[in-house]
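ok so for the tutorial part 2 we go from a plain amino acid sequence to predicted structure tokens. step 1 is just haveing the sequence, like this:
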Amino acid sequence: MATILRKIAKQVLSRTTFSNLAMDRARDAAVDTIGCMIAGSSDESVAALTRAFDGEIAGAGQARLVTGGSASPSLAALVNATAAHALDFDDNFHPARAHASAVLVPALLAVLTRGKVKSGRQFIEAYLTGLEAQAAVGFGVNPSHYNRGWHATSTVGSIGAAAGVAQLLGGGEESLAAAMSLATSFACGPKGQFGTTAKPVHAGIAARNAVDAACMALAGLSGRPDILERQQGFLDLFGGDEARGWEGLTFEERHIIESRGVVTKRHPCCASTHRAIDALLDLKQEHGLLAGDIAGIETKVGISAARNLAYPNPTDEMQARFSMQYCLATAFLKGSLSLSDFTRQEIGRAEIREFMPRIDMQSYSGDEEKGVERLPHIVTVTTLDGRIYRKSRLHAKGSLEAPMSDHERKVKFIDCLSWANRRDPETSFQQLRSLPDFEPLSYDSAFWSLIFQTATDPDTGQRSIEV
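step 2 — the prediction. this is what the tokens look like for a chain of 467 residues:
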């Protein structure tokens, strides 16, 4: 009987063609992630990494860094994926309970090294391979794994991404299975780190581990192909009390990105806040609510969401991204959330701080959640004159069920590049959308100038004039 990893490897390699819908959605996810990566490139978490590894960042490395210069593929994956996740604006992928693209895209970019010539289409196909592998790994352990406290971005995400990297590097079925097995040995990341600069580094560690595992596998290293399901394996140790295993794992003819999609974030904060934010903004618009009308706002969310949102009184911008009170208050008062709302100056604004105590958060009970994959998040607004308005959201804006338009995607991308002080973000957006047609997609191709918009001296790695 085939092991789970071999079953996954065989499945993802059996897809030799992809529908236009799958390719378009993968392209949109990659472009969105690149925007988030550029926006996060100057975040403190990324700056700390570049200081920590300053001696290994130069101009003669094999892989490009979004911060400038180059480094080894491993280090490039670590830095760039941390940047992609730093502002918590990158997408979510429910089957894996992971920030799938923040791991996958930087990991794949990291192996487009000197001398490696790939096409944009090969890049997108490898992304789809890694995404399907993430979904398959997540099938056996989630949501129990995630609810237990594991940050699946750096566990499930890393294992699946290793398959995508190995496929882009030309690996076959054995290599993909070996890469995923090795990545299982690297799995890590407690959700207790949410609200700190360690949290975005989880995505960086996952991307680095995916790159390292794939390179090791192609060099001949291997682990047990049954490491997911065997005793003392991933399910046994990481699954949690209610993990179902992979006995019922099947694959549809449609790719997972067609049937489930990824959730493009509308708001630059923890996804656990998004459905409540959307519901509150709906109520505000539908009933013409003003701040002076509000006596109280109650939210009811999932247990894991309530645990993620551990900062009712945030003291810095990272904590604010994991604060239901701050996110709801700011969204209600301003009508939307943008990257500029998550700065030290903004989180201390008096009008927001005065509004936050009106917001309360409760969670479903264990009995209510038992056996249910997904419950709606509910917002109840009570006005000073006694009116009560209630709204529930099962899906956030940006999901397959409530998709963002191309215009909304462009507005988000422009926000990201403007945050990073990049020139002409609209042109970059349009050009990056032709990613599947880039040929070749290599270390020195024009593609990279769209990400960096700087000329880099090949000898020193110093950033100079804008392209």
